[in-house]
Amino acid sequence: MHHEEPTLAPGTTFEGRYEVLAKLGEGGFGAVHKARQLTTGQLVALKIMRQPEHGGAARTEVRVARFLREAQLCAQLHHPNIVQVVDSGQCSDGRLYTVFAFAPGDNLA
Predict the structure, then answer these.
(1) Integer Cα distance of 83 and 96 in angstroms
(2) Residues of the chain with pLDDT > 90: what percent?
(3) Residue 99 in 3-state DSSP?
(4) Is pLDDT above 90 for 37?
(5) Bigger pLDDT: 60 or 95?
(6) How many CB atoms lie within 10 A of CB 90?
């Protein structure tokens, strides 16, 4: 069964805290958007985990654990060449998200 993801069009507000500016990319785990933190005006990269379409509860648990581990590990790293984690959490619909400081530049691909 296919789950329709909520649209994050430019100009919309995510979780009442971030103004979505543009979609930066999409991968197997979800999408990344350029956004602005409303309270500070800071530009951020908002990574939102896609709701699983299939694979059962065990596969979903693995994906969630991996997403959470990535956020926790990134938050512990501090180096001038590593983008900092600003925020993370869970949406009301259950999707997880991580917010990184925005690093302008070209896609590494």
Answers:
(1) 19
(2) 32
(3) strand
(4) yes
(5) 95
(6) 13
